[in-house]
Design goal:
The complex is a heterodimer.
Chain A (H helix, E strand, L loop, with lengths): L1 H29 L6 H17 L5 H24 L7 H23 L15 E3 L2 E3 L1 H23 L1 H11 L1 H6 L4 H27 L8 H12 L4 H21 L4 H16 L14
Antiparallel strand pairs in A: 1-2
Chain B lengths: L6 H4 L8 H18 L2 H26 L7 H17 L5 H20 L7 H21 L1 H4 L5 E2 L4 E2 L2 E2 L3 H24 L1 H11 L1 H6 L4 H27 L1 E2 L6 H14 L4 H21 L12 H17 L3 H14 L4
Antiparallel strand pairs in B: 1-4, 2-3
Helix pairs in contact in B: 3-8, 3-11, 3-12, 3-13, 4-5, 4-6, 4-11, 5-11, 8-9, 9-11, 12-13, 12-14, 13-15
Classes of the chains: A mainly alpha, B mainly alpha.
Chain lengths: 288, 338
Amino acid sequence: MIIQQIISGLALGCVYGLIAIGFVLIFKTTAVINFAQGEIMMLGAFVAFTLITIFNVPFVLAFLLTPIICGGIGILLERVLIRPLVGEPVVSIIIVTIGMSITLRAFAGMIWSYDTLAFPLLFSEETIRISSFVIAPVDISIILVTLGLVILLFLFFKFTTLGISLQSLAQNPLASLLMGVSVKQGYSMTWAISAMVGAVAGMIIAPITFLSVNMGFLGLKAFPAAVIGGFNSIPGALVGGVIIGISENLAGIYLPPWVKDIFAYIVMMAVLMIRPEGIFGTHEQKKV
Amino acid sequence: MDLRESYSQDIRIFDKFYKWGWIASLVAGIVVFCQIGGDYVAYMLNLIFINIIAAVGLNILSGFTGLISLGHAAFMAIGAYTSSILTVKLGVPFLLALPASGALTGLIGFVVGLPSLRLTGIYLALATMAFGFVTDEMILQWRSLTGGADGFAVIPPIIFGLTFDSYKKYFFITFISLAILLFMAKNMVRSSFGRTLMAIRDSETAAETMGINLGWYKAMAFTVSAIYAGLAGSLYAHFILFISVDNFTLFHSIGFIVMVVVGGLGSITGSVMGAIFITVLPEIISFTKDYLPAAVKTGYSLQAAVYGITLMLFVIYRPIGFYGFWVKIRNWWRTFPL
């Protein structure tokens, strides 16, 4: 029982972690929290759903096309809404991303209606029995996809020129501009990658949570994940997500049922009180 | 002419005495408008006044002190439930329950504001958001006191034997509260307290160098802001006569931010205009609904889309909000022939 809860918590935590990685990517380069990350995840799920059920695109192809489409949306959002605000106070950019999330949810509601839809299943619903406990294949697929994506991101940031230039941008925009890195393009790419990660998160969580315009609220649970892991650490975001996912499920067993829904926020408030920079985050010294 | 020679001239609410006449006629105009208009007019005016109170409170926090709060609806919820429980369950008169709900909310606001010394920017936004969720969940679970998910039926206020049971009568309560609270807000921001908050907003380091106790003043900004939200919540509860957690969600917190931003950060007049605009906006939208295709008007999507787009456009193109327009028009009139 406990092990099953841990595994399903691990799967859910992976999704929280992926959304949190989206936050972290944007935060590292632009010091902005993107409140619309959950809505981009929702868009990813709906785009994949539309491709599969309406345009009859094969599953694997849809799985590859969706991140590309969402990456494009990410670039568009950055270009139109965020770029004019570079240099403005961070709070105003955060307010714009809040507006973005409201608007995206409203548009999605206009296009796909507010009904809850069932996402086509890639895996059978039969559970796998290993000795005494059962595992759902969906959970396994979520964990594997997350691991694969994180390794891909790691390789991208470690070995490709673009990845390294994005890293330099996060550390010092002026110096990297002088070294020939295009700051504007870099910001666009950051939004694109973050939107792609969000889209993948949406596609793998959709079979569990069903499709609905309001599934973006799941993104609100990813804030605690990012805070716990540290807002400027990519592995931290994943670890934070897993911690939230598992502890939430365990809280569902050992504590009164209603605690489960807000447990993530209680943990986040505790972390903010004790160590605001998170487990893996580095404390930024403010120079006067 | 407009040159100011002394401090008392500088902090005057209106530079010319005759402007009090304008205010008096405005007040008289609103009262007459409400009493001869239908119930709908009175309803809208009440709602606008309550939203103005909450928006002005949030502006003291966000516009004047530069701290963001995503949990303002929770403060309002605390005020609303405190006042309802006091009047319905304990039989406390409304005139006592209203300030009591403000006081309790202020106390909670002080506690929420304490960490704002360490948490800045985004972290504060997230902490206040978490506070909002936790408050809502606690209200839902504390069934014996709050009625939980069933909501809470509130009684209309009774003052000195008079029952304020219609929108037109209730108008006087919200209007007088609004007048007092606006006057207090104006006084706060033109006194040393307000200047302290603005100093913190503009540069924390410089403010601290000048001997300002950052932790205390940030917590006080939260307290004042929470008191306003709590009073607005209390007024809202006795106005709408039935409250549940659904009236105080994250979406409502964001709605107050929209009012403040659209009106203009750091301006009381701006918050008044922003609150009026955002409160009337859904009504304008519902008028246009007949001319729009069916797909656009499902659910709350149209209203939400207009909200979101307005918010983004204002932040990008008019960061100073309606107040900026107002100042422009005013200056244009002043220098008219030139």
